[in-house]
Amino acid sequence: MLYVGLVAGVVAGNVSAHAAGMDAFRVYVATLVLIGPAVAGARLLHVVLHFRIYWQSPGRIWKQSEGGYGMYGGLPLVLLLSAPLLAVLRLPFGAFWDVGIITILTGMIFARIGCLLNGCCAGRASSSWLSVYLPNHLGVWERRIPSQCLESGLAAALLVFGVVLRRRIPFPGALFLLCAAGYASGRLVLESLREPEPGAAKFNIYHGISVAIIFLSVATLAVRWPK
């Protein structure tokens, strides 16, 4: 499902680049180049957060049969690497990431379905009307909050928002910032609905990253928004 998400995201990004009047081939090249660092950064964040496990078995770090990705780990890495890459390809930074967020959100819809099928990112056990009989990554079945479905739905809603408003944004990069703030706000809530790891604090690293993204996105929007 991660692969399906990547392919669907690249296709959606290509369509969005054409619609925005950008050089779609250069956008396509930049997207393909950045996929590798994005996936690597997501994997490394997961490894860092589970350092004790991988310190004892370093061979498992890049083992393809194991799951474990933290999407937030890929975002700052590709943002930094994209600056020189986009300069070489002569693509505007803000406009590229307005297209890039369409790619990311499309990919996330499918990736979270993969999480649901694999049991990772499972929701808390619950008896509420919203709960569904689902497994976690250990194969333990319970009625749970379907957090993966909710996050996939969040990505889909933001994708529709982005497609509808892409021609009304006040400056290049605003769509990326709005969607990033929207996702981080939703993730801040959804993170608390996930099944906690043993001994984990209520406010974890993903909560902290979400707060940072909201703050940086809103601050940048406030500074750049036309007066």
Describe what you observe in this structure:
With 227 residues, the chain is mainly alpha-helical. It has one domain. It has eight helices and two strands. It has a two-stranded antiparallel sheet. A hairpin with a 5-residue loop joins strand 1 (132-135) and strand 2 (141-144). Helix 2 (24-49) runs antiparallel to helix 4 (71-89) and helix 5 runs antiparallel to helix 6. The longest helix is centred in the N-terminal third of the chain and has 26 residues, at 24-49. The relative contact order is 0.12.
Strand portion, in percent? under 5%
Please tell me how large the radius of gyration is. 18 Å
Low-confidence spans = none
N-end to C-end Cα span: 43 Å
Helical content, roughly?
Answer: 55-70%
Indicate the overall shape.
globular
- What's the mean pLDDT score? 91
The assigned structural class equals: mainly alpha
Number of domains: 1
The helix tally amounts to 8
Number of strands: 2
What is the ordering of alpha helices and beta strands? HHHHHEEHHH
Assembly status: single chain
Would you kindly provide a brief summary of this structure?
Strands 1-2 form a two-stranded antiparallel sheet. The chain has helices spanning 2-19, 24-49, 51-56, 71-89, 93-118, 147-165, 174-191, 205-224; strands spanning 132-135, 141-144.
